[in-house]
Amino acid sequence: MSKFVVFNGSSRYPGNSSIIIEKVFSGFDAEAFRLKDFTITQYEDYRETDLKYKPVSDDYDFLINKFLQSDVAVFISPVYWYGISGTMKVFIDRFSESLKKIPDFRQRCNGKKIVLVVIGGDNPQQKADIITTQFQYICDFLGMTLCHTFKGEADRVGEIENQHEFMLSIKNYLESNFTI
Questions:
Q1: 140-162 per-position pLDDT tens digit
Q2: Can you say whether the dihedral through the CA atoms of 49, 55, 56, 62 is positive or negative?
Q3: Which member of 27, 50, 91, 117 has the lowest number of beta carbons within 10 Å of its beta carbon?
Q4: Structural contact between residues 2 and 178, judged by C-beta atoms closer than 8 angstroms
């Protein structure tokens, strides 16, 4: 059975993202982290200096280690202004630091499976395409595989619970593709 790590980029709790995690991931070997509950400092670019990256004391190292220890990483984010949440973006921006700080970071990412779940209230089937493209480029750069993107339509808290087929499609996909 695959080991999942789930990163929830929502600023709302409870929210549609947390409902998906609760309903879909029960029964899986999964650890879920609501990024808003952690301190993740914004990345500062020092690549043209001797410093390379600025050491900071926050929760990023804990989270990136959970990412690296997983077989499948699931990123769940609301669609905020046609992109991922700021919290999730800050977390992903820090991958630049990991490329400098963790000598085998790229090798440890190579072959990692990524699943993306986005939820929006303004036609996410079309308007969230840019998020899928962004993740595809991230995966290509690090040698990971973007296995699937799920796009759910919900705006108000709890609306996703009416999307039974959507949540079932995620669960069925995970069971079919990542479990023995």
A1: 999 999 999 999 999 899 899 99
A2: positive
A3: 50
A4: yes
